[in-house]
Design brief:
With about 350 residues, the protein is an alpha/beta fold. It has two domains: about 230 residues, P-loop containing nucleotide triphosphate hydrolases (Rossmann fold); about 50 residues, no CATH class. It has a seven-stranded parallel sheet, with helices on both faces. Helix 1 crosses helix 3, helix 2 packs antiparallel against helix 6 and helix 4 packs across helix 10. The longest helix has about 30 residues.
Length: about 350
């Protein structure tokens, strides 16, 4: 069954893609087999991460972004070559547009069904009938960091299915969204004036996540103040002449204002980071490997080494200070390796 499903994914079958992501979300054993079958056909898609709090207009922004990424349009940078960096964009992609796009929208988990609460597909109906766009909502299922645990594997499925671009929209939980930088090729942090984001912009975690800042709803009062707050924080860092300095793009997603400039900025970042993209993907692979090994080790420990309820008893002993966590961890490791 897995081989057949894998072949259908490689052929770009939407039903097969949906089925595969469901298997991965459910942590079904056949999901891991499927990833093994398709992994050699991945690594071609460009992953765009869009993150920040609920109400920042991320879904509307993503909807407009899809439209502009699919629309054949000559990159502004291809029409000029004032700098070496802009010339590089022209050489890489004189027409920055893509025919096939995948979207993974990570939403909070419903306490009743365990599924995604918001269902971003409802907010992206513009592309509902577009065969070149596949949109899937996923629930975090309690996983911290702004992403569902299965997000990375779901992105692999879309990659194997031939998607040129995979957009990952995170759940929006503030500074916990550090996982996006370990998942995407470019991380876009969306800020909104009048919602306290002037303060959020001053937090180191937010500054470290962003490759591109987007001030959305830029027609609101306070937009320039927010831009100034981000600029002031960026000014605290001394960027080298060849180092990427995160730009700030002002958008009004509801009207499409600023979206072509955002697409242009993504193109510039992609061209600029060509030399470091392999290192970023290597770091991502290492993180995923460590995550899987940790998960598999704990599963092995609970299923094959410890008696039922024993782990909870050890946790209780740590909580009551009968044993320290380092000694407990060493003992668990010793028993697992016997």
């Amino acid at each position: 069954m897995t081989a057949t499903l894998a072949e259908r994914i490689l052929a770009g079958d939407p039903r097969a893609i949906a089925r595969a992501i469901s298997l991965i979300e459910d942590e079904d054993a056949s999901g891991a087999d499927l990833v093994r079958a398709i992994f050699g056909h991945t690594g071609r898609a460009y992953l765009i991460g869009v993150t920040r709090p609920p109400g920042a207009g991320k879904s509307t922004l993503v909807d407009r972004l899809i439209t502009n990424l699919k629309k054949p349009q000559r990159s502004q940078s291809s029409q000029r070559s004032e700098t070496k960096e802009l010339s590089a964009v022209s050489a890489v992609s004189p027409v920055f547009s893509f025919s096939s796009i995948g979207v993974i929208a990570v939403d909070p988990t419903s306490p009743f069904s365990g599924g995604a609460v918001l269902g971003d597909r409802l907010r992206m109906q513009t592309h509902a009938s577009d065969a070149g766009v596949f949109i899937r909502s996923m629930a975090t299922r309690g996983h911290l960091g702004g992403l569902a645990r299965a997000t990375g594997d779901a992105a692999l499925v879309l990659d194997a299915a031939g998607k040129d671009i995979v957009i990952i929209e995170t759940v929006g939980v503030g500074q916990d969204e550090v996982d996006i930088i370990r998942t995407a090729d470019v991380s876009i942090v969306t800020l909104v004036p009048g919602t306290g984001d002037e303060v959020q912009a001053l937090k180191a975690g937010i500054m470290e996540i962003a490759d591109i800042f987007v001030v959305n709803k830029a027609d609101r009062e306070g937009a320039e103040r927010l831009v100034s707050a981000v600029e002031s924080n960026l000014a605290l860092h001394a960027y080298g002449t060849e180092e990427w300095r995160p730009p700030i793009v002002k958008t009004v997603a509801t009207t499409g204002q600023g979206i072509p400039e955002l697409v242009e900025t993504i193109a510039r970042f992609r061209a600029h980071s060509q030399g470091t993209q392999a290192l970023r993907r290597k770091t991502r692979s290492e993180y995923r490997l460590r995550e899987l090994v940790s998960q598999r080790f704990m599963d092995h420990l609970e299923r094959n080494v410890l008696a039922k309820g024993e782990l909870a008893a050890i946790v209780d002993r740590i909580a009551t200070r009968e044993v320290d966590p380092y000694s407990a961890a060493n003992e668990l490791l010793r028993r697992a390796l016997k």
